[in-house]
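pinging the channel bc i need a second pair of eyes. not urgent but kinda urgent?? the chain im working w is below, pasted from the shared doc
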Amino acid sequence: MKRYLGFCPLLLGLAFAPVSHAADSSALEKEIDVLKENTTELSTRLDDAMSVSGYTDAEYTSDSKKGGNADGFRIHHLSLFFEKRISDQWRFFSEIEYADGPKFEGKTAEGKIFAEAANLSYAWRPDLSFRLGRFFTPAGIWNVDHYPPFVPTQERPLHIRDIFPQIFDGAMVYGTRPIGGSFLKYDLCWGNGEGNAGRKDGNSEKATGLNVGLLLPFLKHTEIGLTYYGDTDNSRTEKLAGGAHAKIKAGGFALQSEYARGDYKPTSGSDYTNTGYYGQFMYNFRDWTIGMRHSVYDKNTATDAIDNKQVANGAFVNYHISHALVVKLEHHLFSYNNDTKDEYESTIFSVVAYLGN
């Protein structure tokens, strides 16, 4: 009998073991459910959070232009991007630029604070989406793809932001759709026009713009396209501008070029035309980029009696410390087709950082 009594604790343990195991499993399942809920809540918070990124750069410039900038350091940009995914289809984006280290004391101000972009986008379909607010004028390549961490020079081609305006306040329809083995992207915009940023339009006319680009599959990152822009400014000068652009990449080589022409009809004075062009060649190897650019801008007004054509030739080298940090060295020679202005040179050394993931 004693021998059998010795097995009783063992038998009782075996009898209650499934109950204990079930209790432990139930508790574990509850913990897993809590962790899943916490993870889902955290993921939702991250999706709903405003993300902040941007870029900054600092330069040292040596400039031989008479009466121009003296040699010295420049805190050129601090641009902050604020982005928020409001829903699966709605998205907010803004860019605030602090140029030249703004300082406000007393009655004077140094530098500039500028809302370069502030818009809401609705992604309906890949070939048909909408945007409302302020955005960069969809014209050519450089005006849209202008960010210092991703372009090889701090100095812009001569005509950029002149024939086509830098920003556009209004509405945009945009998208990309396949055509055969290629893709056609387009941006169609309608808004206030030049000189009317922010609060309201200063005249009853509205500006229209259209940018189209054909993306070719047989060469990586290759695009050719056209741009149209029409506007009547606050002085009643009519402006019709057109342009063409191309970007071709093959291996480490890249060629980028843009042409723009603006025809102006003022209410008084003669009609006039401004034209601009640049061609840029680059070669990328390992962490280095080297290249050169030829840029021309023929700027006129209704009362001009001289040739205002300006030419800039430049060479540059970039060293990419990482994908987010680049060191640049560039040299530019500026000349004119008339005797009223002097030639000058500019050398810029800069360090540029992308402030994102």
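so The first strand starts at residue 51 and ends at 63. and The two ends are 75 Å apart (CA to CA). — does that match what u expected or am i reading it wrong
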